[in-house]
Each structure stands twice: as C-alpha cells, then as structure tokens.
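Supplementary Methods S3. Input chains for the assembly prediction are listed below.
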Amino acid sequence: MSETVDRAWMERVFEETKNWGRWGRDDERGALNLITDKRRAAAAALVRDGVPVSCARDFAVEPAVDNPHPALHMMTQAGDDCTAEAEGFESTTDFIGIAFHGMATTHLDALCHVAVSRKLYNGVDVTEVKSTGARRNDVMAARDGIVGRGVLLDIPRLRGVDWLELDVTLGPEDLEAAEREQGVRVEEGDILLVSKGRDARRREHGPWVPMDGMAGLGPTCVPWLHERDVAVLGSDGISDALPGTGIEDWFVPIHQCCLAGMGVHLLDNLLLEDLSAACAARDRWEFFFVVTPLRVHGGTGSPVNPVAIF
Amino acid sequence: MSETVDRAWMERVFEETKNWGRWGRDDERGALNLITDKRRAAAAALVRDGVPVSCARDFAVEPAVDNPHPALHMMTQAGDDCTAEAEGFESTTDFIGIAFHGMATTHLDALCHVAVSRKLYNGVDVTEVKSTGARRNDVMAARDGIVGRGVLLDIPRLRGVDWLELDVTLGPEDLEAAEREQGVRVEEGDILLVSKGRDARRREHGPWVPMDGMAGLGPTCVPWLHERDVAVLGSDGISDALPGTGIEDWFVPIHQCCLAGMGVHLLDNLLLEDLSAACAARDRWEFFFVVTPLRVHGGTGSPVNPVAIF
Amino acid sequence: MSETVDRAWMERVFEETKNWGRWGRDDERGALNLITDKRRAAAAALVRDGVPVSCARDFAVEPAVDNPHPALHMMTQAGDDCTAEAEGFESTTDFIGIAFHGMATTHLDALCHVAVSRKLYNGVDVTEVKSTGARRNDVMAARDGIVGRGVLLDIPRLRGVDWLELDVTLGPEDLEAAEREQGVRVEEGDILLVSKGRDARRREHGPWVPMDGMAGLGPTCVPWLHERDVAVLGSDGISDALPGTGIEDWFVPIHQCCLAGMGVHLLDNLLLEDLSAACAARDRWEFFFVVTPLRVHGGTGSPVNPVAIF
Amino acid sequence: MSETVDRAWMERVFEETKNWGRWGRDDERGALNLITDKRRAAAAALVRDGVPVSCARDFAVEPAVDNPHPALHMMTQAGDDCTAEAEGFESTTDFIGIAFHGMATTHLDALCHVAVSRKLYNGVDVTEVKSTGARRNDVMAARDGIVGRGVLLDIPRLRGVDWLELDVTLGPEDLEAAEREQGVRVEEGDILLVSKGRDARRREHGPWVPMDGMAGLGPTCVPWLHERDVAVLGSDGISDALPGTGIEDWFVPIHQCCLAGMGVHLLDNLLLEDLSAACAARDRWEFFFVVTPLRVHGGTGSPVNPVAIF
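Predicted structure tokens for the full assembly:
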C-alpha cells in the first residue's frame, strides 16, 4: 500500500465508509440491515450435522491482569439452606453482575458504545447516551438476535502458528490470503469472525495486560470491511490491534469506523478455538451463527454466548 | 381421569418418570440428551422465511408486584463524560446485575435449581450446590446452547380468549386439544412452549402478585411430558400453575418433576406474543429454536433471549 | 403566618436563606462549617452515661412498597464451603450492594444530591455531577464524619400520639412547641432530628407508598432552619412532607433549600424510636451524635449508622 | 521467649485465651462486653479539641494487585438527566456495591468471619453461617456502634522509619516498647490500633500483592492481647503478618484467636496516617473512637469509616 495511513487518511476513510443515512435517518440497526431474511434462510441451510459450538468464554469471575473488574456470581440460596417458603420444594438461586465491556468477557458492542468526534452511528450526538441509559442506538436494535451466515478466518492456521504475536497488525491482504487458503469468501451481510489464537497464547503464557499488545486488524482493513459489506465483525480479541495505532484521534479505528461509521456491531473476546476445530474438521469455514443479546433498554451491549451450528 | 392426584400419586409419578441413570450415572445434561444432532439438523430445516422472533421480555429493571427484586442496569460512563483515557475515542459503558430467578425475567432453569427431598437430578445431593456455586448440574450443561425444534401450544387461542384466567390449571387433554387444533404433535426431543396469554393480561390489567394465581400446567401433565419425552419445557409463566397444588410436599410438581426427576430444563417467563403471532400468520407451530445461556460455572441458570427462527 | 406560601414566596425564601459564598466560593462543606471544633468538644461533654444508641434502620433487603429497590446482601462464602485457600483457616464472606437513596434506608444526602434550577449548593452547575461520579459537592465533604450536638424534637410525644398521620405538615410553631415542651433549644451548628413516629406507624399498619403521604416539615420551616443555623437536619422520614407541596417547582422545599441553598446535609429515614426512648428516660433531648459516611469519591451520599451517645 | 511457637503451642494458647462462655453461652458480642458504659463515658472525656480524624481509606473502586475485586460505585442518575419525575426537583443518585473483606477496604470483621476447626466464637458451628446469611455471631452484635477508648501504637515511629518492611513480625515486646515510648498503656476494654506504615509504603512503592508479605503481629501477641483484654484490634494491614505463620492449621493466628477464640472484633485496612499525625501533634495516643457498622442482618462485617475524636 503506497498510501500513508495517517490522520488525514483515517478521516477520509471514515467519511467514505460511513453508512449514515443509508438505511434511513432514524435507523439504529446499521449493517444489521444487510442480514436480510433471505440471507438468514440461506444461512440456516448451511446446517448439516446439527452440531452447535459455543463461541463464548466462561463468565469471567476471576480477577486477572486482563480482567481488572471481575464479573460477580453470587449464590443467594444454596443447598445448605434451600427449603423455600413453600412446602416440599427446595430451590437454589444466584445472582450475576457484570460490567461486560471488559477484555475478559464475550460481549456484543451496541452501536452506542463508541463515538467519533462525539457522534454515534447515523450522526446521533453522544450525549444521547445518558447516565440513565442510551436513548438511541442501544442494544435493542439486536433484540431479535443476530442470526446469519458466519465466516471464520483463522490467521494462525494460515501462518502455521498457534497464535499471533502481540504486535501483529493484520491488513486486508491477510484476510484475503485466509479466504484463499480456506476456500471461502466474505460476502455482503456476513458475520465475519477473525481468529488470532489469543486463548491458545493465554493458556500457554498466562494472561497479559491487553494494552501491552494484542494482535488485531489494522486501519487498512476498514475500506475492505466496507467494500465487503460485512454485517457484524468479531474476534478473539477486540478486532482492533492494541495498544492502538498511534494515529492522533484514531486510537482503535476498527471500533471507531465499524460502530460509529458503518454501523457494524462488534463481538469482542470470542472464544474461537472450538469453532476453529469444528471448521477444520469439516474443512468448511461458513456456518449458521446466532447471537442473542439480552433485551436491555438503553444498554450499550450485552454479554452473549454466540453459537455456531454446523 | 379417575385417579386421585394426591401425595401418594405424586410420589409414584415422580419415581416412574424420573430419568436418573438413563444417560449415565454422572450425566448432567438430562433430557438435553434427547436433542440429538440429527434432530437439531432436522429442526434447522424448518427455517424457510429467515425471520427471527425473540421470546424474551425486556430486562426487568422496573419494580412491580411481580418484580420485587428488579434487575440493575447502570451506566458506568455516559455521553456526559465519555472521553476515554486514549485519545480520540469516546466510549460509553454500562453494568447489568440480576437475580434472574424472578417472575419478571426470561430465564433458563439449570437442573440444580430445584431438588425434591434434597436430591437433584440424577440423585445428586442438594448440598452439592454450595454457597460458592453449584458443583454439579449447573448451567454449563447447556454451554453450547439449546438448539432444536420448538413447538408452541397456544391455549388462549384454542379457547378463543386473550388470556387464561389466573386459576386455570391445564391437563394433558388441553395440550392434546391444542395439538389437534394447531395440527402439530409434540415429539421426543422437542422444546415445548405453552402460552397462557400472561403478557396480554398483564398489559390489560397490570401486574399482579404471582402467588395470587397464574395459569399453568397441573400435575397430570407430568406423565404426559415424560411419555412425549420433551427435552425442554417453557411458558410465559413458570409452567406450573400458581399458587401451587396444595398437595403436601408437591408445591410445583412441574418444576419438581421436570428439573429434579426427568432432567428437563425449564424456560420461565418467556414472551410468547410475538411468537404466537408469527406462528398464526404461517399456521405453522413448529420452528427452529435457539437458547444460549451465559457460561456461568456453578450457575443455577441464566437470563436468556430465546429466539425462534422461521 | 399571613404570608401566602406560593412559588414567589419560595423563590424569595430560597434566595434569602441560601448560603452560597458564606464560607468561600469553593466551599463544599456548607453548614458543616458551623460545627466548629469548639462545638464538637462541647457536644462530647454531653456524654455522661456512656450509652450508645443507633439511629439506623436495618439494611433493607426486603422488598416492600416503600422499598422497591431492595438492598443486596449476598454471601460469597458460607459455612458450607469455607475452607480458604490457606490451611487451617475457615472464613466466611459476603457482599453488600445498595442504591441507598431510597425510602427504606438510613442515609446521608451529600450536597450534590439535589439541585434547584440546575444549580447545586454554592452555585455549582448540576452537570458537574457526571455519570462517572460527582466532581463537586460529593460526600467526601463529610469524610471525617459529622460529629456534634444532636437535638431530637419528638412531635408525636408533643401531641400525645404514637405517630403523626400521613397528611401532617409541620411548621416552625410545632418545632418551637416541642422545644418548650422538652426544655431544649436548637442552636447554631446543631444536628436537628425531628421524629414523626414513622416506624411505629409502619409496625402497626405495615408499609405504605411514601408518595401517598408522609408527615414532614413544610416550607415555612425553611426560614426557621436558616435563622437557627442548623448544621444538619434529619428525620425518620425524608424531612419533607409528602406527597410534596403542590407549589410549582417546589416539590420538596426542605430538600431543595437545605441541600442546594443552605448547604445543610440531610439524614433520611433514621430510626428514632430507640433514641426517643433514651431521651425520654433521661428527660434530656440533646446528645453527642456521630455520623460516619463511607469515603466515596464522587458519591451523592452514603448509607450510614448514626449513633447518639448519652 | 524460650518457648517453641509451633502447632501444639498455638493450640494450647487458643484454648487458654478463648473467651467462650465468659459472657454467657449465647453471647454474640464477645469482647465488646468489655466496653462498659463507664469506660465509654470515660473515653468521651478524652475529647478536648473537638477534632475528628477519619481512619478509613477511600472507597476502593480502582483495581490493583491489592484490590482484585474493586468496589462498585455507579451513578444511577447524573446531572445530564436529572429531572426527577416530580416538577422542580433535580436529583442525582448512585449505587455502591462491595465485597468488603478485601485488602483494600477499611472494614470491621464480625465474629462469624473466621472459624477454627469449624467453630466460631462461643463454640458456634460454622455451618450456622448459611448461604443466606449468618444466623449467629453476625455484625448486628455491633449494631449500636463500637464506641470507646482508642489507643494507637505506632511502630514505625518507634523505630524511626516511615514503614515496616514486609517481612516484619511483631511481638508483645514491640507493643510494650511502643507503650513506653509513647507513654500510654493498653488497658482492658480498649480499642487497640497498631500502625505499620502500610500506606506510606504503598504511596512510595505502589501496591503489592499482600500475600507477598505484610508486616503484622505474630502469634506471640495472642497471650498478650488476652492478658490486656483488648476489646477490639485494628491495624493498617490485617493485624496478622503475611504471608502467614507457616504453622500448620494456624495461618493467621491473630484472626483465628481474636475472632474465633477471644471474641475480639477486628478492624482491617485502616488508614492510620492522619491519626498518627494527630496523636503525634498532641503527644497523646489515646482518643475517643467510634466505629458504626451498617446494620446488616446475617452480615460477616461491614465497610466502615472509623473516626477518632480528639
């Protein structure tokens, strides 16, 4: 690429790729509009074996350097004192609590999660996200679930390694190389998942501070994502490479351009190892994919357990 | 039915219908084992239009007489103060917390949620559910999602009413009448959903104290559920009729026999109005159905957003 | 009083009684400045018997019509599974969570809790209270505790009743009648507590919806509180009479004028029964009083357990 | 001391110093019984200047290696959206949540917090601490506050250092040396605070993992604490030296013998710098001391803001 990827370039790309107004001025669904009923039905036809594969990490209650705000899981009634008020009925119950936008939790980012120059997707002012909840672009846009064709691009497999090193930044050429190697092509309306082997590395070397580095997509992927018109993007990291680009005002361009510009929802911190194995076993990198966020009015996203079905 | 439905009858039915050991002594999945890959693939083939329909109520943050422990949704960073530590990147975030086993929240009951005579499914002692989390029969049994054929039986529609009155207890004859009327049959491995019109009534009359009454399945449904070998049971209430049977030790026999006896997971407090409309519009009462609980080790269930796909 | 207590009157009183600038333009302590070391030492000299009396209600975990957002108390490790990671040491632990500004919780209102025409005490704009915490007038103003002379005025006792009916609005004449009856006088820098018998009524009749009515101080008390220069005001309700005045823009003038105008911290939902009994037994209505809020940066108050020491 | 401090010694000391039955078989207050009204009144007489000094750290919302489970502070309504339902009344509110038994939070340990050989203070079985809350020995024993004479022993000052190194274990000889140096004597019913300079070290060197080491009292202090009959013990660490004794079954003997044996409540993670400065300025190491835990039924302790009054 002969272009200089600097602030001016980023600003131009953001403008050129943004989908504001594309699906109406009041639209809050963004690129989810690309997942038409027809595409959804076609995706369901990919199911052959009937095998479901979870792409979620376990609920992250353990503190770690990549989990400074652990999720809460507390029993409210356990087997030591479970005789309910009603006769003959023993019941155990619990509570969960989570600030899910951490680096240890599989979650969906709603379009209100990130603003660029204080504007959310479709030009909504970020102040519409109130202390009492988001009034626009909240997770309710995905209330009926995100259901469609998923495609996995497995970059470590492409490179013959278990994981990408922390300083790896991927470009469209890497994504296309994976397409060729895997015999799959990312199409309009797809849910694109990109594996970087994060969990394999974590298992081997232990957790690390994400800002110390994490492989991810670089800014040059933005035009490509727009050209391909992906509906949703996910990865086993946060899609963006960390510790960020160093370009002024464009710390994490994938988050900025996808959420605020293109209206592409993001899936962060997926667990892609089981999915990768399932794909490799079948040499098939497309699958029916279902993500069902909780219906939180005003929510900026949701913890989720995305499931691929083969 | 000429039989007397009393404590002795319940005890006999519980024994006769329990699936302990059926899938191995250490099994924790219970009737989820009935959802084979083959059945899952067949269920996916039901997708024609590609239309997804959520069966979850909105996250229940508003206190009400049927929601005494409201869910928590709190912003941790809103648009008034969203400039992140990193330059050029505005982010808004939130926290959710929930004791999800209430009457206002759509949730999955794990098999450790209910014990009978201090025994959980497969004979596990209820004390295995510790104050630190369940060691057995937790929600992780459904970690890859519950994916299969869903069948809706819409009892208000059968009766030509908007909702069932609070004191209605349904028997197998009602379920079979709905089957005939709708032209569908509940089969082995199905996810059976029974609508009682709860939300229509709530919208019209406002919330009520659930223990004052709620239509549901009576104890005579237990043998029927076992005979049909349903994999999962759900409703827009809690499946059981309230305020309970009045039979000593058998307060809510559906919960007791399904969870502790048969190993049938339950879906409580579904929103079935949209599903019912989608079914009626197509005159088709079977659909592909996906439930993806959060992967909480030791959890007694999970809030969920179940989705039917037509 | 021949004056008409209307909106114009309220506006004038607010202006005349506000202490903005009185202790400096950047002051955040408000009338706590009136509790000088000398007064604090004099208050300590009131201790004779050495008997402490809590003025807090129990942590309000039970839902009720006056507690729609119950506090959370959850064990994180109980005696059923308490062997810690370290040998020979069994430990049990718990978690508390609370949105403490409810009607069931004894709490301190920080000066940032209420604004009038979007201005907090000392003219601070209410937008200084961010979604990430209050930047000004937070509870840290009371970080070293509120320690001084407490005075209880017991209005039910004055009237020979167990509690005030829900529609009772008190004026300065009631407070002065209680002073005379009890032989005490509210002085500059005092922590004034006014009992209305709320808990006696609740015990007898059960909880009620606070907005249905609750005895309290009316707007005519504002000039009196200012004239007496109380440092802190508390009651077994929320000081204001409910359901509010009906005066446009002046729903709860005690909260509005005390917190935003005079800089007087408020103690809401005290339990005053034990204190009243302790005072009556000694026929002494002044006492050493200690309130120690948690040191929450950006906090709008704190749950507290105020203690009087006789 | 010529004795060998081993497991047998610890067991003997635990037996010899335990106060089970001393204040009745059903007593739950333990050594709080030593703080008589008379002593409380005498302590109040120590107040001369009227200066209060907080001994609490700030509410610990920031993750750190010594704070792996940060406290939650979330605004529920901030100044960006604070117009309440009622006219003319702008209100901001928040929520706090905390698992307070961490190493970063100033808290009171209730007597149910620690068991030895599965027995709590007064021989109560640890299983009385249920998943639904402690039925015995909960924090309600201190519901009226802990009010009495506080005495600070400042060990870094004694040694002419800013803080004690992490591997320092103190014995009774150190406590007595501090008594002599400071001209104070720990008496029956006192609230004894021991400073180790933890916060000075943390400020200089940053936080460290507590189990890597923390200065504290060693096991030989147990007989001394019993002989002096202290009512409550506190420190700027957790009183015990870490990483623990290495004696089998006696990981943290101060916690074990104080809470489970003697019935001495503990104050952990106090901030003692301001207190130390206040004492040194007056060359007076005794003061009136007030701790007011929240009234949590079944609670194993409480976050607190203890205040010394000079």
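The helical segments of chain B are 7-17, 37-44, 155-159, 172-182, 198-205, 221-228, 253-262, 273-282. Chain B has a mean pLDDT of 96.
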